[in-house]
Amino acid sequence: MAEYGAERYGPSADVPPDYRVAGRHAMMPAANHDEIARFNFLANLVKYVSTRVLPGTAVAYQNRAEPAFEDKHGHKPRDRREVRKAMEGDPYYKIWSALRLNTMEMRQQAGRSVVLRQLDELNAAAKSLNDDKPTLQLDPSVEIPRYIGSVDNHLMPGSYYTELVADDVSPAANYDVGIFVTTQGLFGLHTDGAGHGLVKWLADNHPDLKINRILDIGCGLGHNSVPVALGFPDAEMYAVDVAAPMLRYGHARAQDLGATNLIFKQGNAEALDFPDQHFDLIYSTMFVHETSYKALHRIMAECRRLLRPGGLHVHLEQPPFHGMSPFEQFLRDWDAYYNNEPFWSTVHSLQMTDVMAKVGFDRASLFETKVTAVVDETIFPKAGDFDYGRGCVWYTFGAQAEAA
Ligand SMILES: C[S@@+](CC[C@H](N)C(=O)[O-])C[C@H]1O[C@@H](n2cnc3c(N)ncnc32)[C@H](O)[C@@H]1O
Fold it and tell me: 61: which residues sit within 8 A by CB, 6+ positions away?
């Protein structure tokens, strides 16, 4: 696939790789010529908007919005809310914001049209790969929490859980086929760079930790469960999610990718039915920002209950707002207003160390760090050769439970 990836363009071309470099597996929806062209157009548009249009918002702020705010209020904007007041009517900001919103909407439309035209085939493929295997454990009594059930998360119609027909996998198939547009391959061949990065981080930082039982919470379709299951092939590993379509698709995909030690289980990470101190490693990737204030505290308390003494819990997320300028906070807060991310502003304002301490973790056991995604070099040149942009270095927090 090098002909479509970095080698085709060379790093200085600085354009996204072709959609055809995205990793394939038995569940991946097929895309025809026009659909590939649409994904490529959108990936390039997303990159153009984020690298060429976005920087102009800072110029508009400095030259126009900030001085106008100061004239009116007698001081410069002091926090992201005041920056927002200064910027929300600015024509340049409105153009960038509308373009970004449109790319998000077009991405959903493009992904769903690919999936819906082959809905029956995809559902049948999942059924045949899942084949009543004990490693897929669905539980229809699990209730969808409000923060998932009442919102089309990041503009995804029907969120993660909606089933158009019985045994549906379409929300997961849409998530999988279209994520290339928003990440442009930056998340790795199988959108699994964070999981590979976590395996490397564990080897570098906790080489002596005995890992026999692993839990991934909010696993989605298992993009970042599979690399961990493959990294610890002798471990018993559970990947938990509330949404049955994600689990059906994820299990079928994992079977095809060889992660047969991975059990996909339907459950709410706020209250799981595993025994106390059951796991050596609990982790999540891009999960906690999609919960709620109350749920986050419950989930952290559940991690504490489920960790064995000396065990580790680790969560890879978008960076918090602390330490960023009010203007950067304002830009990053865009998702809360326009991308259906209702917990976004609050979660990024929290100190995760305080949240963990609040549910009983000893402060001495807490850590905040960064985990670098491991991205396949057939898509992008080696890390460090040029700027990958955001998304490849994850803000990471967690704790190591006290040894017995
Ligand atoms: C951004 S997605 C998938 C993230 C996934 N870890 C990855 O790296 O691709 C977040 C997932 O969390 C799930 N989820 C949200 N709240 C949950 C909860 N309380 N318990 C379990 N899963 C939850 C959603 O259904 C969704 O599949």
Answer: 83, 86, 87, 90, 93, 327
Q: Is 183 in the pocket of ligand 1 (CB under 6 A)?
A: no
pTM (2 decimals)?
0.94
Which residues make up the CATH 3.40.50.150 domain(s) of the chain?
193-400
Residue with tokens 């999936």, as numbered in its chain:
115
Alpha helices in 289-366 (DSSP H): 293-306, 326-332, 334-338, 344-349, 352-358
124's tokens: 């049948």
| CATH fold group of domain 193-400 | Rossmann fold (3.40.50)
How far is 261 from 238, CA to CA, in rounded Å?
9
Instruction: Return the residue whose CA atom lies nearest to atom 21 of ligand 1.
Output: 241
Ligand 1, atom 14: nearest CA belongs to which residue?
218
∠ Cα 138 139 141 (to 5°): 160
| Residue nearest atom 3 of ligand 1, based on CA coordinates | 220
Q: What is the pLDDT of residues 214-245, one digit of tens each?
A: 999 999 999 999 999 999 999 999 999 999 99
| Percent of the residues in the chain that have a pLDDT greater than 90, as a whole number | 83
CB of 218 shorter than 6 A to ligand 1: yes
Which residues of the chain carry a pLDDT beneath 50?
1-2, 6, 382-391
Q: Of the candidates 385, 5, 372, 46, which has an alpha carbon nearest to the alpha carbon of residue 189?
A: 5
Q: Could you tell me if the CB of 220 is within 6 A of ligand 1?
A: yes
Nearest to 272, CA basis, from 241, 316, 309, 246: 241
Tokens of 103: 């790319």
Count other C-beta atoms under 10 Å from residue 292's C-beta: 19
